[in-house]
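sorry for the late reply, my laptop died twice this morning and i had to redo everyting from scratch. anyway the thing you sent over, i finally got around to it. pasting the sequence first so we're on the same page, its 377 residues, then the predicted structure underneath. double check i copied it right bc i was rushing
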Amino acid sequence: MTPTKTLNVDALAQTMSIDDMAEDELNRGTLRLLGQQKTQRNMATTVQCSEQSIDRFFEDLGRCCHVKKLRFDDADLTEFVDKLGPVVTNNDITNFFSDGSYLGVSEVNALFNTFSDMKSLEHLEISYDHYDIGDDSDNDLDDDIMARCIPSLEACTCMQRLILKDMRMSSKSSAALSAIFPHMAGLQELDLTGNLFDGNCVQSLARGLVECRSLRTLNLSRNRIGDDGLAMLIQGLPTSIVSLDLSRNEIETGWNAFLPFLCNPTSINATHGSNHILLCVGYTANISRDVITMLRLNFGKDKSHVAAKKILQTHRHLDMRPLFDRELDLLPRVVAWLERFADSRPDLKLSSIFDFVRAMPMKVVGEKGKELRRNGL
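ok and here's the structure:
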């Protein structure tokens, strides 16, 4: 076969026949459909080819320079994971997917070593969907194996979506993940569904996520997080989180730990600085009504309005003293603010204005006394 510097589908057809690449007509038909695509940007195949065909396919694919995405669904990666090297070296791979594909120990080691060369990788998704029906008999992975593999992802500084589901990760893997997160400043979505993370693991993960200020979606469903673990997670949760999924964990009565995160009642400033963007924490039947109320408030598009509503609901007797130290022309602003946000609490609006006005005479007397002293009276 004559080597070429770059190879499109037409060139591939010229170097080998479809009859040579597949053993039955169904697979040949699939390859013919691939050959009809003029632009080769997403390589995906579910055919069962001979070992020789696979070798020749990846040999030619390795000469391409425009492949961006690789996807393997329900495949046995033992047959070709060691053949991905040239494909990765010659292309800027941005997306890699493996859903329900078998990965043994040697295969996962080889695959993660390959990731260290994917400098442009933005979306990595590996999952074992067998766990959805409770079958993990063909999963050879464990915490030690994954802890050794994860450091390879440190080179993927462009990562935006990282999905590692049903990989049997636990304490050692959480520490390894925590170490690589600071190198993924642009990470927007993290999905660790179906692993073995408990409270201590979550605390370790949270330490690493502090630098991920762009993180908006965090999925930790189907793990082993309990009430104590939830409290530790909330303490280190990035303030940028919009969607959090903690369903199917071991949380029972700890949901109220979200309250100071969503609406800190210690002061008006603390309430104003609380989280106003978190919209969900996963479907559960035992979340308290107070937490649900705060989550619903966060659906407001104008976050300054959301903050104001929380202040009015939490601080039923507003302390107006901080305003008394300023000029009296603040009164119209106070009235306007209360008029805007306290429609449902006219009693609060009137009492707050009354407190403000009640302090005015003392301020006037004080100012008058200063003026008299200046005049020598």
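Confidence is low (pLDDT under 50) at residues 1-16, 36-41.
thats about all i looked at so far, will dig more tmrw
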